[in-house]
Amino acid sequence: MKKGIFVISLDFELYWGIGDHIDYSAYMSYFDCTIKSIPKILALFQHYEIHCTWATVGMLWNEDWQTWHNSKPNILPSYRNEQLNNYYLAEQIDKTTAKDEHFFALQIIRKIASIPNQEIGSHTYSHYYCYEENTAAEAFIMDLQKAKDLALQHNHTLRSLVLPRNQFVENSEHMLHECGFTSVRVNPNVWYWQLENLNKLSSKFTRIVDAYFPFLKKKSYPWEAMKLVNGVLKQPASRFLRNASKFTLINKFRINRIKSEMTHAAKNNHVYHLWWHPHNFAVNTEYAIQDLEEILKHYHYLNKEFQMESLNMKEVSESYHANG
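Now predict its structure.
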């Protein structure tokens, strides 16, 4: 490619992405706010002609709890820590008081798909964790296949994959290819984003500093940094869009860091891959939307000045194959 590329991927999860560390009954308004923020995000994407991959947890494709129950794969995940297992957690939910829209989102998925340039991708079926103890390849493949099959029932073919918590395990590309995926998002190639280091205090501290201050290297990368392995293109993430803050100075540092990296990518014909979860906009939503618009306005400037292009993950993969 002879131009900078701006990629956005979103991990669309609702309850299924954070159920292991929350009390659902205390978070109902949080999910309400998440759902209300999505049309605002989509409106900005449409206005600024942004291409985006919405990596969607497959359980969200179910219509209700009965179809959820009927959709269980033959082999279920079995983690040493059962709190990570959404099949276990779902049984703890009081279905009489729970809001179905916090667990199932067919209408939202249809709305996303109706907006130009939005790709519906996969975030696995059950928010499957690949880097936890006691995982099995058979359960992982069954999980991915269930996500593919359920999406196909609604006329969507899933090509792009984002693994929960970016837990991509090396040498698993052949399994992803077997399930029909052509691209997967992976972590930045720096020590503090490596899976074995993610939970270390030194890594957490460095990621926080890196998000606000330009002491460490910029996270855009040349086209050649993406690797095609066993038919699957590994697309590194660049930057996680952290939650908005009411404190103007903190927000300024955070957004300026992103804009600086975007400019670097545009000037050097690099790829810049920004990601977050829609539920990150559930708190301080007004500030989050304002921050997003500032970022997208900057992309619009870079598009005019340096011909930077917005692509979703599927389009990046197609471009990679077309251009070599």
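Residues 5-323 form a domain with the TIM Barrel fold (CATH 3.20.20.370).
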